Amino acid sequence: AGYRSTTPWSFSVTLRSGAAVATRTTLVTRERGRTIGSASMRDDGPMRSPLPDYLTEVLSVCSEGKGATSDHIPELKNADPDRFAISLVTAEGVTYSVGDDDTEFSIQSISKPFVYGLALEERGFERVLDAIGVEPSGEAFNEISLQRDTGRPLNPMINAGALTAHALVAENKTPEYRIRAIRDLLSSLAGRELEVDEDIAASELGASFRNVAIANLLRNYEIFPDDPDDIVAGYVGQCSVKVTTADLAMMAATLAGGGIQPRTGERIFSRSVVRQVLSVMATCGMYDAAGDWLSTVGIPAKSGISGGIIGILP
Ligand code: GLU
Question: What 3-state class would DSSP assign to 125?
């Protein structure tokens, strides 16, 4: 499922189905570990999914936004905070969606698990694990979380690791080459052609002082051989790919389905890559709130500063 919100809440869904002629489904909504609603219904006769009603209820319960749009990237400050959607896609490709699910916004850090998967596919486990660790940093997304002796980023979900994963997709290539390869990957995952939001990219690039500093440190430690400015330019393009909440849910469903895109049937990631990606999403995907998220919600997830979150129930 992918959803977009400016409030830092979480939800989980418990779905229990009985068998035979009548089916009883119980859905429980939890916010930060507290049960805030439940619905139980019995379907006799033709089966009608309770999910649309359930998602509508969650949407309404969670619409009271208390958050703020991010000022980390100047252009993101102008985002409409009232847009809100929840989409859920099963591993078979059945989609349930409510709210503004076709509004486009930049993918930001939700691109990180997918690009990490691409790096693993392209360069192999040995090369990637040699360059990027798998330990939670317990720090914010843009901290300089590098191993003291080697300069190796602690994990691929923080910026230091994500810049490295971006570089590993293809060494010594232009930013345009890597953006194209990553846009192709994200498009295959979404099942439609995705575009880069050039305004968001220009806005982020103009304010990338911290990411440029991190990329220079990584280059200094010889984590990658490329020009740090090229890596930041490519990474910013990666973060600026435009998606909808419905796209994100479809992309996440590919991970839920063991690497097969549910609509097109294309195998995008091998099972071992999916396993690796989901593991680091579980332990590191929510940055310094990863432990809180795992203990209250309990599924691998990834957030982005444009307001989206994906979660996967493998
Ligand atoms: N493009 C943002 C950055 O690297 C992504 C951060 C995020 O979504 O957490 O600063």
Answer: helix
Reported as a single tens digit per residue, the pLDDT across 76-103 is 998 998 899 999 999 889 999 999 999 9
pTM across the whole model? 0.86
The span from the CA of 299 to the CA of 283, in Å, is 10
**pLDDT tens-digit series, residues 182-224:** 999 999 999 999 999 999 999 999 999 999 999 999 999 999 9
For residue 108, how far is its CA from the centre of ligand 1 (angstroms)?
5
Residue 90 CA to residue 234 CA, distance in Å, equals 32
Pick from 159, 204, 212, 242 the residue to mutate for probing ligand 1's pocket: most ligand atoms within 8 Å of its CB. Answer: 159
> How far does residue 106's CA lie from ligand 1's centre (Å)?
10
Is 155 near ligand 1, meaning CB less than 6 Å away?
no
Give the pLDDT confidence of 13-56 residue by residue, as tens digits.
333 332 233 334 445 555 555 555 555 544 445 677 889 999 99
What are the Cα distances from residue 17, in Å, to 216, 247, 314? 53, 27, 18
CA–centroid distance, residue 169 to ligand 1 (Å): 18
